[in-house]
Amino acid sequence: MFKKIIAAISAGIVIFAVANYFVSSGKKTNQELVQLLADTHNKDAPKTINNIRVDKATVKKNEIVYNFTYLNAAPGDVKKEDLYSAVYPYLVKNGCSNDKMVVAINIGILISYSYHDNQGNEILNVQLNKTVCSEK
């Protein structure tokens, strides 16, 4: 089940290619960039991949939150620790080594991945930021 969501996460990483021009050229503020990332992601959301719904991204000041829902997971079915063990290393390895994501992170944009059960309860929230990426 966790490998299926990793494929969905990869789609979010690709979105950063769209925003790279804006970061490198300095033509957007952080908040404008975060909104651009969300708008780009949301054009294809929601999308279901193997009973995992890739929901619309949400925006907080300088943070983009990619939301995922396990459609077949009732509350308590997915343990936070198991999900963390499955996705955190992948997110850090791929997110913190992706040049386009690192550019965004280095200018202070926070990238979060929020996982929910089928009732909308948050199971786990993972955030990539400068500190996390510098420790990788």
Q: Biggest sheet: strands, sense, closure?
A: 6 strands, mixed
Structural class, from helix and strand content? alpha+beta
Poorly predicted parts: none
Approximately how much beta-strand content do the residues carry?
A: 15-25%
Distance between the termini: 25 Å
Taking all residues together, what is the mean pLDDT? 84
Describe the global form: globular
Count of separate DSSP helical elements? 5
Query: What sequence of helices (H) and strands (E) makes up the elements?
Result: HHEEEEHHEEH
What is the total tally of β strands? 6
**Alpha carbon gyration radius:** 14 Å
Helix residue percentage: 40-55%
Description:
The protein contains five helices and six strands. The mean pLDDT is 84. Strand 5 (110-116) and strand 6 form a beta hairpin. Helix 1 (2-25) crosses helix 2 and helix 1 packs across helix 4 (99-106). By secondary structure, it is of the alpha+beta class. Strands 1, 2, 3, 4, 5 and 6 form a six-stranded mixed β-sheet that branches. It has helices spanning 2-25, 30-42, 80-95, 99-106, 130-134, and strands at residues 47-49, 52-54, 58-60, 63-70, 110-116, 122-128.
In brief, what are we looking at here?
This protein is 49% helix and 23% strand. The protein has 136 residues and is of the alpha+beta class.
Write the topology of this structure:
Blueprint: H1 2-25, H2 30-42, E1 47-49, E2 52-54, E3 58-60, E4 63-70, H3 80-95, H4 99-106, E5 110-116, E6 122-128, H5 130-134
Parallel strand pairs: 4-5
Antiparallel strand pairs: 1-2, 2-4, 3-4, 5-6
